[in-house]
Specification:
769 residues, five-stranded antiparallel β-sheet
């Protein structure tokens, strides 16, 4: 089969190169149309209970992650000159396209009682609407407990900026973030203060821009580094340029496939392009190494290219297939973001294999024969001496080699027991990053801005505005204030307290839940229609109850506690809610982006664990089909599990937590590391006849024949992942150095424990016909 294919490729080489060029140009056009993802990637499936609860909440109350917060620290806030500049700044922000509303001290309202001859009602009016009475306005504002710890705390002042739903889901969010920051930085510089930014839209916008930048940075860095290593190995600009052109074609195909599948570039799919480079370059090395080996043996370019395809076609097919499986299994999870990454990565790896298979022989058939300097790397004295040492240990001391790795495995298992699962919303950002620093600013002064929503179902119409319900919500929000990780809770209760203070002529001591005496006056205000023609007070009330007034909402900002502490806090809060709200009359649901994140992080980690098992099963089936020997399959699987166990042990000893970005390492590394095993075992199987089924001699010959290319490809693969260290995201960095570590370990195990196990357990076969 492979001989027929080899002759076909060389006979139609011109047509093949033209077809590859035209199809790559077309895919490059599609790649140019690929867009970044600006909405939140779906980490959990649609039918997940937490997702259903969150969607139900948003249907009743709208988006919960639409707020950007800006904070200042100043002693001069209530000086007329600063306040005038601040008012002008917030007005400029409010006038930006895509801004739905702002909440800050300059736009703060007061609720007042209006008495006429025929009626008595509550009205709202701006507090700071008269420059001439600024001092009295200031006193009025500071006399309103509603705003304390919400818009100010000591000398720290907060402005909430709400984005429209359309802006949140489009590129306009990126533009808005830049415009807000530009205007705010100018104001802050003029006033000599430091501006702090946070909120999910701001964090996601910066992450999107960083992903876009890092995709290009990592791609260029990986191309430069692999090009340099290729040049060192082959000493041929032709080999380097050809390899780079092939992987660049693979990159265009990968991004084009992403566009054709109607996917967008996310933090995961952005990694596909550099992964294609990292995995595509070894294809070129495998083919070129065998081409040079065959040319040195046969002395004829055409025969060498035929021999290259015959001997390396099946090997490279299965090495790419197992790598594709390592990524492709993510498609079978229920996480949309993993599905997209798995499908695009898996298909792209197979595409770059076929590009390599058809392009390399076609292209090199037109090029000059390799010179002596181009094949000199095959006689690298240092590597040959190193491989001879491996030979000695695995053939002469197989028991010692096996015992050594078993001891290392035992130590690694101790490290595994120390592994902990933990992740944060801004988990992948380094501590020195300004986004991380600003988030900590808001956590310190306002106890967090990550949205936590508590929805209370009273199970009857208008139940949310009855006095007993209001009193229970007040009792619950008072309990919430006892948790330092939570910001000031906002609910209908705060609006009612505001109204009661107005009813008693602004007396701050009257900021409390209505009693039996004044409830008759206040409750009618809660049952007013909530159309937009009503007052700001009515809008305030309606934002915390649904249109039927059956459901009440409590909005709380929460610190980024992480997947370890957040469940503990939620459990404590849930227990407190159960004490206050009778389950027969009320149903309390905890939702919001923080809850969805927690569920998503756990779901992805579990999905990655399951996908690793699925990858192992599928790769085992491939190995059975390829070698048809359960002993060989068990030896190969054991060889590749050792690096994974050691890496997990290193993570445990180093305190690196299990989270989506680190669990991802194991499936990727397994799919790539098994390539080296297949390369070794196929060569071993082919050489058995050559060495008359003498296992010791076959192992020695296989190490010498494949060892150099295994070292070269492993070093390039490791270097390709080390490039990920240029990333700003800790998760991407962890993916890089942990995968590189695993691949280096896989190289060593495949040159030591794999042949040692063959020497010990494959001898029973004896001489075969």
């Amino acid at each position: 089969m492979w001989t027929v294919l080899a002759n076909f490729i060389l006979h139609f080489r011109a047509s093949i190169l033209i077809i590859l060029l035209i199809s790559t140009v077309i895919m490059g056009y599609f790649a140019s149309k690929a867009q970044m993802r600006y909405d939140q990637s779906s980490a959990i499936p649609q039918n997940n209970p937490k997702n259903i609860e969150h969607l139900a909440f948003k249907k009743k109350f709208g988006e919960d992650g639409s707020m950007i917060v800006v904070g200042f620290t100043t002693d001069n806030f209530f000086t007329p000159s600063f306040f005038e500049k601040f008012t002008s700044w917030q007005q400029r922000i409010k006038n930006l396209e895509g801004i739905e509303n702002t909440l800050n001290i300059a736009t703060a309202i007061n609720v007042k009682k209006q008495v006429t001859d025929t009626s008595e009602k509550l009205i709202t009016e701006p507090i700071f609407n008269n420059k001439e009475s600024f001092d009295s306005s200031k006193l009025t504002f500071l006399n309103l407990p509603f705003y304390k710890d919400l818009l100010y705390h000591d000398n720290n002042y907060l402005t909430a900026i709400y984005l429209s739903g359309e802006a949140l889901r489009s590129f306009r969010r990126i533009e808005l973030t830049k415009e807000i920051k530009l205007i705010t930085d100018s104001f802050a510089k003029e006033q000599g203060i430091e501006a702090h930014y946070s909120g999910l839209p701001f964090i996601r916008s910066l992450l999107s821009e960083s992903i876009k930048y890092e995709m290009k940075l990592i791609l260029v860095a990986s191309l430069l580094l692999t090009s340099f290593i290729l040049l060192l190995f082959f000493r041929s600009f032709t080999a380097v340029i050809s390899s780079i052109l092939i992987v660049l074609a693979g990159v265009l195909w990968a991004i084009g496939i992403l566009y054709l599948l109607d996917y967008k570039i996310s933090i995961l799919t952005a990694l596909v392009a550099p992964l294609v480079v990292v995995i595509g370059i070894p294809n070129c090395i495998y083919f070129l190494n065998k081409y040079h080996t065959q040319f040195a043996l046969l002395g004829n370019k055409h025969d060498a290219l035929i021999g290259m395809i015959e001997r390396m076609g099946i090997v490279t097919l299965f090495t790419n297939l197992t790598a594709a499986i390592g990524f492709g299994v993510f498609y079978f999870t229920q996480s949309q973001i993993l599905k997209e990454f798995g499908l695009v990565a898996g298909v792209s790896i197979l595409v770059v294999f076929f590009i390599s298979l058809f392009a390399i022989p076609s292209l090199f058939s037109y090029l000059k024969e390799p010179k002596t300097k181009h094949t000199k790397y095959l006689e690298n004295k240092f590597l040959i001496a190193t491989l001879l040492k491996f030979e000695h240990f695995v053939v002469v001391h197989p028991k010692f080699t096996t015992a050594f790795w078993m001891i290392v495995l035992g130590i690694s298992c101790i490290g595994i027991t120390r592994l902990k699962s933990r992740s944060f919303i801004v988990d992948d950002l380094p501590k020195k990053n300004i986004v991380y620093g600003d988030l900590k600013y808001f956590e310190k002064h306002f106890h967090g801005v990550m949205p936590l929503e508590i929805m209370i179902d009273t199970k009857k119409k208008n139940g949310a505005t009855t006095l007993p319900t209001i009193q229970k919500i007040d009792q619950f929000t008072t309990a919430l204030r006892e948790y330092p990780q939570l910001s000031k809770p906002l609910s209908i209760v705060e609006a009612i307290k505001f109204a009661r203070q107005a009813y008693y002529d602004g007396d701050s001591t009257s900021y409390a839940v209505p009693n039996g005496f004044d409830v008759a006056f206040l409750l009618p205000y809660l049952r007013m229609k909530t159309d937009t023609s009503k007052t700001q007070f009515n809008k305030l009330v309606s934002s915390f109850v649904d249109s039927t007034k059956r459901f009440a909402r409590i909005s709380v900002g929460i610190e980024d506690l992480g997947s370890k502490q957040l469940p503990i806090l939620l459990q404590n809060v849930q227990e407190k809610a159960n004490e206050i709200f009778d389950s027969t009359r009320y149903s309390v649901t905890f939702t919001g982006t923080s809850i969805v994140f927690l569920e998503g992080s756990k779901f992805i980690t579990d999905s990655l664990r399951d996908s690793l098992l699925l990858a192992l099963i599928m790769i085992t089936l491939c190995m059975i089909f390829l070698f048809r020997s359960w002993r060989i399959v068990l030896i190969s699987i054991l060889t590749n599990m050792i690096p994974l166990v050691i890496t997990a042990g290193v993570m445990g000893f180093s305190g690196i937590p299990l989270k989506p970005s680190t669990v991802l390492v194991f499936s990727i590394a397994l799919g790539i590391a098994i390539d080296v095993t297949i390369r070794f075992l196929v060569n071993y199987k082919q050489d058995l006849v050559k060495f008359n089924y003498n296992i010791d001699e076959t192992v020695k010959g296989t190490i010498q024949e494949t060892g150099i290319s295994i070292i070269y490809t492993s070093l390039i693969l490791a270097a390709g992942f080390i490039v990920f260290l240029v990333s700003e995201f800790d998760g991407t960095k962890a993916l890089g150095y942990l995968t590189a570590l695993t691949l280096i370990l896989a190289m060593i195990t495949n040159l030591s424990i794999l042949p040692a196990l063959l020497v010990r357990f494959d001898k029973h076969k004896g001489k075969q016909k």
